[in-house]
Write a structure and sequence with these properties.
heterodimer; A: 12 helices; flat; B: about 40% helix; about 20% strand
Chain lengths: ~270, ~290
């Protein structure tokens, strides 16, 4: 029942692999490219090669494979739904492969389902590769870098990235607090796992109210702490660990682009 | 009829990178009418241990955790009954208050029991009285607007309203001012004496635990290193210091004196009794006139 241990979205697994060491901006760019490529490929062989490539990267990251599978859990319903929609509702031109009552399954439907299935898995794997090997702080720095051009048209990029950093920083804290509250209220006889939908929703009140109260209090505390360290909106900010491109970063990016181009062109 | 924990081990995040062994072969018991103290540094496994006592963490193997001779391993479905019997008050319990009025908040745990509104009222009234708050004066107040000490009492009353036979308190006095601290401890003692509730209390305050507990368990890195009556445990100065734990002030004083005053009884933890021992020693040795 421990939430903190169930929610793996955006989780980071510390490590010393090549992928961990790579510049987060390069990793962010690579996963964006990867996501585009996922939709460019038109053949099953292409997908299998790409999947193989990703599995290679997973091995390279030295993050236990279980974490990647955990990342699939939240979208399991989505996968099941879209795959079955594709199978049952795609109308093909030839003879149906299978037909019973009003259900007709065509070859085109199966192919489309396999495509959608592979696409979703590849998308989750590529985003998991990014978040599992990049600490949230480095990831926000990377996003800040990428957003920088927009500051010239008046987008408060520094503030946006500050907000993201704070939000990321407090995700584990709030999950931990939620865990604690669930335990505390269970000790008072609250039940969260029984009853109908309405009862379960009602069961959330004893968790949500204290969570809101403490979050507001924490926000107040944080604001005071930031002000007492002379935080001011709109000032130019420097970083303790600035991101610096190294030659191996460009080398990896180049290699990555070449490999993916080959896959897109030939498969 | 007691809480019995036998040879219990527990690991968080088993098989993951963050794997952490929280308990190693812990044996622990709390018998009816006792006040049992648990001390140890942060991260020594105290919280994990007490969460096993009311089934918040269920044992993964049979024959390790028993409440009144029931093995909690076999009680996954009926664990809420155990939670009513074993009330657990978390650290800073005031953070769990959420209802609009004190009365409703204290009555929260009673919703699951089929009680009439009169019965609920009586339970809430008694519980608030036990923690030293007047029902008439507090029932309509918003718990959010109370002082820290009052909030904590209301949270404690919320557990007491369920009439638990065992009460587990995780650092009940942390962050309270000295006056609120003393009176809360007094109430805990009263709950134990008058309502015969068995109490398990985690604390970092050695004086408080020495004066309240009948028996003490000292934990370190997930194991029980010492256990016994306060005077037995606090006589082990060197072990306690090595574990980074302090001593009750009186024990420290007597320990210091015993290095030059050979033979002085240094197992006393109560300050008044300590003073008597010192006076008696001085009289015997002719140092007092």
């Amino acid at each position: 029942m421990e939430l903190r241990r169930q929610i793996t979205l955006g989780q980071y697994v510390p490590g010393k692999s090549l992928l961990h060491a790579l510049d987060p901006r390069i990793k962010l760019l690579c996963s964006l490219i990867l996501m585009v490529v996922v939709f460019l490929i038109q053949s099953v062989t292409g997908y299998l090669v790409l999947l193989g490539f990703l599995l290679l990267l997973v091995l390279l990251s030295r993050v236990p494979f279980r974490y990647f599978l955990n990342g699939l859990k939240p979208i399991l319903m989505l996968v099941v739904l879209t795959v079955s929609l594709q199978i049952f509702f795609t109308k093909g031109t030839g003879q149906p492969l299978f037909s019973w009552w009003i259900i007709q399954i065509f070859q085109e439907g199966l192919v489309a389902a396999v495509f959608i299935f592979l696409r979703l898995i590849l998308l989750v794997f590529s985003s998991s590769l990014l978040t599992l090997t990049t600490s949230p702080m480095r990831l926000t720095s990377a996003i800040e870098f990428i957003l920088k051009p927009f500051s010239y048209i008046g987008l408060p990029t520094a503030e946006i990235s500050m907000m993201m950093t704070i939000a990321m920083r407090f995700i584990p804290t709030i999950l931990e607090e939620t865990d604690r509250l669930i335990k505390a209220q269970s000790s008072r006889g609250a039940e969260f796992e029984t009853g109908n939908m309405f009862k379960r929703l009602q069961g959330l009140i004893p968790i949500l109210v204290p969570l809101f109260i403490s979050s507001f209090r924490r926000a107040d505390d944080l604001a005071i702490a930031m002000e007492s360290r002379c935080f001011q909106v709109g000032m130019k900010r420097t970083q303790l660990h600035p991101l610096i491109f190294r030659s191996q970063d460009f080398f990896s990016l180049g290699l990555f682009i070449i490999l993916l181009s080959l896959i897109v062109i030939f498969l | 009829m007691s809480i019995e924990i036998k040879d219990l081990s527990f690991t968080y995040d088993k098989g993951l990178v963050f794997e952490k062994m929280a308990l190693r072969n812990v044996t622990f018991s709390a018998h009816p009418g006792e006040i049992v103290g648990i001390i140890g540094q942060t991260g020594s496994g105290k919280s994990t241990l007490i969460q096993h006592c009311n089934g918040l963490i269920l044992p993964i193997e049979p024959n390790h955790v028993f409440v009144d001779d029931l093995d909690l391993y076999s009680m996954k479905k009926t664990i809420s009954g155990i939670r009513k019997k074993v009330g657990l008050v978390f650290q800073y319990p005031e953070a769990q208050l959420f209802e609009e009025t004190v009365e409703k908040d204290v009555a929260f745990g009673l919703k699951q029991e089929n009680l009439s509104s009169d019965q609920v009222r009586t339970r809430v009234e008694t519980a608030l009285q036990t923690v030293g708050l007047s029902y008439q004066q507090y029932r309509e107040k918003s718990p959010i607007l109370l002082s820290g000490g009052e909030k904590r009492r209301v949270a404690l009353a919320g557990i007491l309203a369920m009439n638990p036979q065992y009460l587990i308190l995780d650092e009940p006095t942390a962050g309270l001012d000295p006056f609120a601290k003393t009176s809360l401890l007094e109430e805990i003692r009263k709950i134990n004496r008058e309502q015969h509730v068995t109490i398990i209390m985690v604390s970092h305050d050695m004086d408080e635990i020495a004066n309240l507990a009948d028996r003490i368990y000292v934990m370190d890195e997930g194991t029980v290193v010492l256990s016994g009556t306060p005077s037995e445990v606090f006589r082990q100065y060197d072990t306690l210091y090595a574990l980074g734990l302090s001593l009750p002030e009186t024990s420290r004083l007597l320990h210091f004196l015993s290095q030059s005053w050979k033979g002085i009884d240094n197992s006393i933890t109560d300050p008044i009794r300590g003073a008597e021992v010192i006076m008696q020693y001085m009289k015997e040795k002719g140092l007092w006139n």
